[in-house]
């Protein structure tokens, strides 16, 4: 193997997410990226790449930029964003990742399957040579694993389903299966959530999940949460749980 390619293969890249265009402008202008210390990945990386979600419109659902990591420091949010002194996290610690330059990929890496992207790791070689987000990771995201398993069992589902509460608040549901309930053939609503261990083990997120589930149950939803370790290590058990839940709601609508 060419020494240059070998070195490239071993260079670890952190995949970060840009929340909006303002964060992209900050990145390009000031050459740093921030992560709340509570959520900061523990694995070290030499590079960082930036995923632009659907909020970016036509330039969203893709990775366009990456950079070499110069150094990192722990700072207060209000120090790096002094224009937001009243922000709820103004006094919280953030990991500020300083960059030695921003580079544009020869071609963007597209999220063709609309997979939900959070922090992850890949290699520089993959970043520079693959075409889709799915190719970046050795292990598919848990949503992809479950989606493939449901499709193989011929279970009809809706993915990333948007549901609005009466007050206008919207939730994005990982998976939805419509089931028959009672003799009137009314649709039963089954929401299946894939809970990544890193994110959903945090107390503040667990509280948000609990409130979300209560709100959805008031609107007639049944909720089934599947843990990442079960999806990865015992997928059949997860499918069995789903089918048992479906049976209790009268079976899937075909």
From TrEMBL:
Domain of life: Bacteria
Organism: Candidatus Desantisbacteria bacterium CG1_02_38_46
Domain Restriction endonuclease type II-like: 169-245
Protein name, UniProt field: Restriction endonuclease type II-like domain-containing protein
Source organism phylogeny: Bacteria, Candidatus Desantisiibacteriota
Alphabetized InterPro entries for the sequence: Restrct_endonuc-II-like, Restrct_endonuc-II-like_dom
């Amino acid at each position: 193997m060419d020494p240059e390619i070998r070195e490239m293969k071993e260079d670890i890249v952190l995949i970060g997410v840009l929340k909006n265009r303002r964060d992209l402008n900050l990145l390009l202008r000031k050459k740093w990226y921030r992560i709340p210390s509570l959520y900061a990945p523990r694995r070290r990386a030499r590079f960082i790449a930036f995923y632009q979600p659907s909020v970016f419109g036509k330039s969203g659902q893709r990775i366009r930029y990456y950079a070499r990591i110069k150094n990192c420091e722990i700072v207060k949010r209000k120090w790096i964003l002094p224009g937001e002194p009243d922000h709820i996290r103004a006094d919280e610690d953030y990991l500020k990742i300083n960059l030695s330059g921003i580079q544009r990929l020869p071609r963007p890496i597209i999220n063709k399957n609309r997979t939900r992207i959070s922090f992850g790791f890949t290699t520089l070689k993959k970043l520079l040579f693959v075409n889709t987000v799915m190719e970046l990771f050795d292990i598919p995201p848990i949503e992809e694993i479950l989606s493939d398993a449901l499709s193989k069992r011929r279970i009809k589902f809706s993915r990333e389903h948007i549901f609005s509460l009466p007050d206008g608040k919207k939730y994005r549901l990982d998976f939805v299966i419509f089931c028959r309930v009672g003799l009137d053939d009314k649709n039963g609503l089954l929401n299946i959530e894939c809970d990544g261990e890193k994110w959903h083990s945090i107390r503040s997120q667990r509280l948000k999940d609990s409130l979300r589930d209560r709100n959805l149950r008031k609107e007639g939803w049944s909720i089934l949460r599947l843990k990442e370790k079960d999806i990865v290590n015992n997928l059949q058990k997860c499918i069995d749980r789903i089918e048992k839940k479906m049976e209790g709601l009268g079976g899937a609508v075909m």
